[in-house]
Amino acid sequence: MANLDGILEYIKRTSPGQEEFYQAVEEVVHSLKPLFDKYPHYKQHKIIDRLVEPERQIMFRVTWLDDKGEIQVNKGFRVQCSSTLGPYKGGLRFHPTVNTGIIKFLAFEQTFKNALTGLQIGGGKGGSDFDPKGKSDREIMAFCQAFMYELTRHIGANTDVPAGDIGVGAREIGYMFGMYKKLANRYDGTFTGKSLKWGGSLARTEATGYGCVYFAKNMLEDRGETLKGKRCVVSGSGNVAIYTIEKLYHMGAIPIACSDSKGMILDEEGIDLDLLKELKENQRARLSEYIKYRKDAKYTPIDEYREGRNEIWSVPCFAAFPSATQNELNLEDAKELIRNGCKCVCEGANMPSKNKAMNYFVEQKIAYAPGKAANAGGVATSQLEMAQNASMVNWTFEEVDSKLEQIMFGIFQRVSNTAKEFGEPTNFVLGANIAGFRRVADAMIEQGVI
């Protein structure tokens, strides 16, 4: 292709209707212009042209029986974007919104995120439009086993190593790994996020949330700031959000708000973490139950939100951690956060800010970290789980957490130094995209045209 804009025209023509994928590519492509101007050989080798086409896209039918004995049909996906740096690595998402464009954007993002860790892992992503909510354990097992009948042939410890994501936790990983083991006739580290009883790693559950806060800590310390005593808001109430809140408390911060798909909790005294874990991890209940136990907290249902807005971003805070899903934060949300004194936005989810919101944060020169840098702690710890599986050892929680903190500091340094190299020291979007791309690109050039 003749120019970077031609890349966008190409993917819109050849991958119609994949808006999230366009958004992810556009962000990266625009960040790469100064790199291509300074080092034109990256353009000559057509690296970005190759990366926007995944090495392999797999789509398959999943048929299973529900508790009524009725046949159900879902779509399964696995997009293997790049194996340049190592086996494909990325989670599986089970959610009714899953489609080809969502999985392609996630796999594309994952490639650069994984490169930023400095570890030997490539990028991939997968999932299904299956919704685990409201399903019995037997139905979830039936679906997971049917899903693995097809996926097993495409994965392996040195080929492609899936993990969890939205809708895929320890229960789903267990059912899938059990079927993988039976079909493949192997017991290996093909999945991460496994139970501690059979090959999992301590600190994996906490890793994405912890890592996000470590990244925020590094950004703020570089500016002479700290999280201690600061009001923070965290969107979502799943794994990432819960352990972001936990690590914020470790840092002396005061997380005051979180959300789920039905509404938002505001607890000015600080979120009751034990209660939140009980409701979400044990009872699988809605956040609306929170106010039954914390009378001073306020619950706002989603039908009372202002149209097109996520009400959590209207809560005055020092730091915000978007940790729910993609595109949950728009330009008006970004402006309101800044008006209310927000000095730090650190993304725990994948691409939670729309591009206009992202650009606004960069323009305002706040401490802003895009998800491909800030939420890399989960996949980094997954690679640590792979290393433990390969050597048949188990590290302590403290050992894994210490390695995670070091990896997040390394990511911060790579992103910060790259942003400074290109004359924009506060632009961590540019820093993350160039640093991640350059590591993949250099390896692709050395490996030839394949």
Structure description:
With 450 residues, the chain is α/β, with parallel strands linked by helices. It is 46% helix and 15% strand. It contains 17 helices and twelve strands. The chain has a seven-stranded mixed sheet with strand order 9-8-7-6-10-11-12, with helices on both faces. A hairpin with a 2-residue loop joins strand 7 and strand 8 (263-266). Helix 9 crosses helix 15 (377-391), helix 9 packs across helix 16 (397-421) and helix 10 (239-250) runs antiparallel to helix 11 (273-282). The longest helix is centred in the last third of the chain and has 25 residues, at 397-421. It is globular. The mean pLDDT is 96.
Summary of the model, kept short:
Helices cover 46% and strands 15% of the residues. The protein is α/β, with parallel strands linked by helices.
Distance between the amino and carboxyl termini = 18 Å
| Unreliable runs | none
Relative helix content: 40-55%
Strand order of the largest sheet: 9-8-7-6-10-11-12
C-alpha-based Rg, rounded: 21 Å
H/E order of the elements?
HHHHHEEEHEHEHHEHEEHEEHEHEHHHH
Q: Which key phrases capture this entry?
A:
15% strand, 5-stranded mixed sheet, 46% helix, globular, alpha/beta, 7-stranded mixed sheet, 12 strands, 450 residues
List the helices and strands and how they pair.
Layout: H1 4-14, H2 19-31, H3 33-38, H4 41-44, H5 47-51, E1 56-65, E2 71-82, E3 88-94, H6 100-116, E4 123-128, H7 137-151, E5 160-163, H8 170-184, H9 207-222, E6 231-234, H10 239-250, E7 254-260, E8 263-266, H11 273-282, E9 298-301, E10 319-321, H12 331-339, E11 344-346, H13 355-364, E12 367-369, H14 371-374, H15 377-391, H16 397-421, H17 428-447
